[in-house]
Amino acid sequence: MNADTTSGTQLLLWPPSGQVSTTLDSAFIPGAGPSSLSKQRMIGKRFSRLVVIREAGKNKHKKYIWLVRCDCGNKKIVCGENLRCGGTRSCGCLRDEIKHKRLHNLTGKRFGRLVVLRKSSQQRANRTAWDCICDCGKTKTALAINLKRGFTTSCGCFRIERVIETTGGKNNWNYNHHATPEDRLLKRNYAIPKKVLAKIYKRDNYICKACSKKVIRALGGPIAHHLNGWNWFKKGRSDLSNIVTICRRCHEKFHKMFGYGNNTKEQFDQFRKEI
User: Tell me: the pLDDT tens digits for 132-160?
Assistant: First the structure.
């Protein structure tokens, strides 16, 4: 042991000058490569299912890598650090065996509205998926983890029904409890295809079939009126013979006189005679 007294303090130096330690192995010095002695010790050594065959150089991180043989017969290049710390224990067969043991057969089991048919041929996010059939008749592929945890319980029909149940009709935030059935019928969108409308207006030459006046677009434009009501005469909803062109003024007068819904062609003939 030597002491440095030049600065008034004593520094202990180890090993003593002139002596060299022969007990340290360079394989255990950080940053140092494996010595020939440590290489000989690694060759033939077993790490779980892997047996080291020989050194295979360095990887891109300048770490020493080794060629190993697995008990299943496969060969693999592994980093030495992964072998020593237990990060790599097989060629991959051990992981597959553990995964297979954890895999439960879900065929025939019910999860909500879904009944498992078989294991799916496709995987999602490297996880096992199962083909299921819903009570509504549709099929769906779902992950096993989502089935077990209750995240997937239907093909999607339950969610749609739930949305309709909670937000449709009287449960909707925009529902008007003071509106009459006539008001609701008036606000419904009885959409007629644009091509059909164009044929009707062109056929009637933009002339109101009630008052026989030219329809002015600036005053609301023409309106396609169903002689037999939309709500009950379903087969005539897009029938050109059941639709006529009238002006907005006559349209409002007609429905004020006969109401909305259940209208007939006879009512329109009567309306034409009275105006």
Answer: 999 999 999 999 889 989 999 999 999 88
User: How many structural domains is the chain composed of?
Assistant: 3
Q: With contact defined as beta carbons under 8 Å apart, do 118 and 128 qualify?
A: no
Structural domain includes residue 6: no
3-state secondary structure of 124: strand
Range of the domain at 152: 103-160
Amino acid at 112: G
Rg (C-alpha) for the chain, rounded Å, is 42
- In the 8-state DSSP scheme, what is residue 157? H
Contact 71, 52 (CB under 8 A): no
Report pLDDT digits (tens) over 38-50. 777 888 889 988 9
Question: Apex CA 101: angle with CA 97 and CA 104, to 5°?
Answer: 140
Contact call for residues 210 and 271 (beta carbons, < 8 A): yes
